[in-house]
UniProtKB/TrEMBL annotation:
Residues 21-258 form the NADP-dependent oxidoreductase domain. It comes from Kitasatospora nipponensis. Pfam families: Aldo_ket_red. Belongs to the aldo/keto reductase family. This is Aldo/keto reductase. The keyword Metal-binding does not apply.
Length: 283
């Protein structure tokens, strides 16, 4: 497994396993299968409702804690957010059955962002999170957070796939030593990703699947990625991407697929901001 080094020296696998949209009742088995396949980075969130199942899989795996890299995320907190955020951190750790996470992310750039970040900085200083970062932050919001706070986010997890490649975001993150992490790397199959002629043609040239081509493309861009599957065969296939390399021409062909627009939801859309901000988590 290839690793990247975060801006505070913590090492993180470049490829991991995400559990978004896996029902809680199926998550323990899926994570157990992923760990058996060799994954060591696990990505969950309070909003996913499956932290407990991830924790059970970790507990029952027998894998030493220091070999795992566990990420979870903070949902939107109202002002004043410091105490609420601390409770959210403790709740996630209890559900996971862990005394710390390796990465704790602010899930959305909304709510009392500065109060949330101050509380996350405190959790980091206390050893509850080895690194802290954000998700879904566009460049303006990310830079604002960087210049006005003590700790620069270690990671920004954003929608990134062949149809929305985030090149400007990537350049800004590289400039400020923030690690780019992709969610939605397969675009959930939209735009016929898994049968796209450009991606399929590249896959055929390497005797690889389209999914493997996309993951290899992300890795060669130095982007951490967290593909999800509940199929053990696909899990094994998705992690088997370190023994081939895309050519410069193939990378350029994929770059030409970029539309520059989201396929899911726009964080600049007032209606989406209102919808996300209305969501609340129990506990």
């Amino acid at each position: 497994m290839q690793h990247v080094t975060l801006n505070n020296g913590v090492e993180m696998p470049i490829l991991g396993f995400g559990v978004y949209q896996i029902p809680a009742e199926g998550t323990e088995q899926a994570v157990s299968d992923a760990l058996a396949a060799g994954y060591r980075l696990l990505d969950t969130a309070a909003a996913y409702g499956n932290e407990e199942a991830v924790g059970l899989a970790i507990k029952n795996s027998g894998i030493p804690r220091e070999e795992l890299f566990v990420t979870t995320k903070l949902w939107i907190q109202d002002a004043p957010a410091e105490h609420r955020t601390r409770r959210a951190v403790e709740t996630s750790l209890t559900k996971l059955g862990l005394d710390h996470v390796d990465l704790y992310l602010m899930h959305q750039p909304f709510g009392d962002v500065y109060g949330q970040w101050r509380a996350m900085e405190a959790a980091h200083r206390e050893g509850l999170a080895r690194a802290i970062g954000v998700a879904n932050f566009y460049p303006d919001r990310l830079l604002d957070l960087i210049v006005n706070n003590e700790i620069t986010p270690a990671v920004n997890q954003i929608e990134t796939h062949p149809f929305f490649q985030r090149t400007a975001d990537h350049a800004l993150m590289r400039k400020h030593d923030v690690r780019h992490q992709a969610w939605g790397g397969f675009a959930e199959g939209r735009n016929d990703l898994f049968t796209h002629p450009v991606l399929a043609g590249i896959g055929a040239a390497h005797s690889r699947s389209v999914a493997q081509v996309v993951l290899r493309w992300l890795i060669q861009r130095d982007i951490v990625t967290i593909p999800k599957s509940v199929n053990p065969d696909r899990m094994a296939q998705n992690i088997d991407v370190f023994d081939f390399r895309l050519t410069d021409d193939e990378m350029a062909a994929i770059a030409a697929l970029d539309t520059g627009t989201t396929l899911f939801f726009d964080h600049h859309d007032p209606e989406m901001v209102a919808w996300l901000s209305r969501r609340r988590l129990d506990g």
